[in-house]
Amino acid sequence: MTDPYLTSIGTADATSISVLGHDLASELMGHVSFGELAFWLVALRRPSPGELRVFEAVLVALADHGFTPSAIAARLTLTGAPESVQGAMAAGLLGGGSRFLGVTQDCGRFLAESLAAHDGPLPAAADDEGWDVIAAAAVWTQRDAGLLVPGLGHPLHKTGDPRTPALLRIAAEAGTLGPHLLLFEAVGRVHPEILGRTLPLNGAGVCGAALADLGFEPDTLRGFALLARAAGLLGHLAEEMRRPAGPAIYQQADRAIRYLPPDVRYLPPDD
User: Fold this and answer.
1) With CB atoms 3.0 to 4.6 Å apart as the test, which of 19, 107, 142, 187 could cross-link to 205 if both were Cys?
2) How do 10-12 and 22-23 pair as beta strands?
3) What is the DSSP string of 117-182?
4) What residues contact 80, with CB distance under 8 A and at least 6 apart?
5) Which domains does the chain have, with CATH numbers?
6) Residue ranges of the chain with pLDDT lower than 50?
7) Distance (Å, rounded) from C-alpha 22 to C-alpha 44?
């Protein structure tokens, strides 16, 4: 006899559907928001009102950022396969990595590992000096290893990502400003002296810190970024159906291409 496959997520029979031990039709639909259910599905516990406020703020922060590579990939895929919304959505989500979206997970893991490496009790929330010591050790570790510090820098928001102070404020108001966010703030204070330049604390990084303070494991954080971006991608695809941009993007790229023979290493620019 085959061993049973165990799940605590959901099940169904001929007359009912159960999710997380609750009847979907009578106990969840109309009673639980999508954000609350997403939190519950991963954490296997219902969020407090404050936790839910921060969690949904994270999803909103990561939903869209304009014509990013993920949005362009989704739109161009729809141009080539207009019958495949699922393919276009997947194309956009597959680009979530170390440069886009994936920073949420990378930063959460960096902060969690830095906290775990600290020997001794953590400073009080108001002890900026104590947090700065931990942050400096974390930034030096990254620098000595030749690695970037996740959550620092942004290609557009050079002087400050507007999402960062907003989410820090929301977390403070909601009572979820924990060690990951406090350490993230400290990284923002100490890194200029160590790295020799000042970089903004970006939105993807602060979202990773906020999610880690909500108790989520680092390995799950990229999934939340993709969950949020899925909403933005669907918006782009709906707009693409109404007002196509994909064909023009393709044509512009096609016109800009110059063929380089395999035996030629460099082709001078046009006069």
Assistant:
1) 107
2) unpaired
3) H--SPPPPTT-HHHHHHHHHHHHHHHHHTT---TTB--SS-SS--THHHHHHHHHHHHT---HHHH
4) none
5) 32-98+221-247 (no CATH), 103-215 (1.10.230.10)
6) none
7) 12
Cβ contact 206:155 at 8 Å: no
C-beta of residue 34 within 8 angstroms of C-beta of residue 202: no
Q: Tell me if 71 sits within 8 A of 64, measured CB to CB.
A: yes
Q: In this predicted structure, what is the pLDDT of residue 259?
A: 86
Instruction: Check residue 98 and give its pLDDT.
Output: 75
- At 162 the pLDDT is 96
Beta bridge partners of 97: 101
Give, to the nearest 10 degrees, the angle between helix 179-195 and helix 203-213: 140
Q: Which two tokens stand for residue 239?
A: 């707009």
Give yes or no for a contact between 104 and 224, defined as CB atoms under 8 angstroms apart: yes
∠ CA 201-47-207, nearest 5°, is 10
Q: In 3-state terms, what secondary structure has residue 92?
A: helix
Give the angle subtended at the CA of 43 by the CAs of 50 and 47, to the nearest 5°: 20
CA distance 201 to 181: 11
Q: 90 and 252 in contact (C-beta within 8 Å)? A: no
Which amino acid, 138? A
Q: How far apart are CA 204 and CA 225, in angstroms?
A: 8
CB neighbour list of residue 210: distance below 8 Å, 6 or more residues apart: 54, 57, 58, 167, 171, 176, 180, 181
